[in-house]
Design goal:
It is built from eight helices and seven strands. Helix 3 runs parallel beside helix 4, helix 4 crosses helix 5 and helix 6 runs parallel beside helix 7. It comes from Bacillus mycoides.
């Protein structure tokens, strides 16, 4: 996918979310692991708006039975080598649905995975259900490339630099594919400035041993 090689070559620790059931799935997961990055499952989930065919194969949708959702989750987990967590691709409809979120996080608990809530819906029930089930939950705070333009991605990088001066922890998501080469280039040029204020760490560092924060 466009920008994948450049993203994986960034000189920082990355948590790489790999979409299951694609021709490049295993190859991308193995490549990320070999580069020293960690891997999570980028599980496609139904949005409030948008077409289901945008999601890719075997997405989690609200019309599926519990059994089918569990089957798809198990297949995705088995599909991706080295995965230690999961997050949602799109999913604004699914992450507000308690029935489905409970199934997703139960699968994560069964396999010892943490969960990154991409926060495509501010009314997500992921934090609530995660706390109930004892699954480590991390919440995204910024998308670099929710708009695929150089000006927007640059603006988001500047916003990240501003926010890390006030917040002890920031989680940000960028993509390969359509914006991939732009996003990777802007992240690379932003690294020195970000390092003036923060360290780059893996998501698992937050999920499994959160850093202490002085108040």
């Amino acid at each position: 996918m466009k920008g994948t090689d450049k993203m994986l070559s960034l000189p920082i620790p990355l948590t790489v979310a790999v979409m299951p059931f694609l021709p490049s799935t295993k190859q991308d997961a193995i490549a990320a692991h070999k580069k020293g990055h960690e891997v999570i499952i980028h599980m496609p989930m139904e949005p409030i708006r948008g077409k289901k065919e945008w999601l890719g194969p075997k997405a989690i949708t609200t019309d599926l039975s519990d059994e089918e959702i569990n089957n798809r989750l198990e297949q995705a987990i088995q599909e991706i080598p080295h995965a230690i967590g999961m997050n949602n691709h799109m999913g604004s409809k699914v992450t507000a649905d308690e029935r489905i979120v409970r199934l997703i996080l139960s699968a994560c608990k069964k396999h010892g995975l943490f969960y990154l809530d991409s926060k495509t819906n501010p009314n997500s029930v992921v934090p609530k259900i995660g706390k109930e089930l004892g699954v480590p939950i991390i919440e995204n705070q910024l998308f670099f490339d929710d708009v695929y333009t150089v000006s927007h991605i640059s603006k988001q990088a500047q916003l990240l630099i501003k926010k890390i001066q006030d917040k002890p922890i920031m989680v940000a998501i960028g993509h390969v594919g359509a914006p991939g080469e732009i996003t990777s280039r802007i992240i690379e040029t932003s690294i020195p400035k970000i390092r003036e204020h923060a360290d780059f760490i893996f998501l698992s560092d937050l999920a499994l041993s959160p850093p202490s924060v002085s108040k």
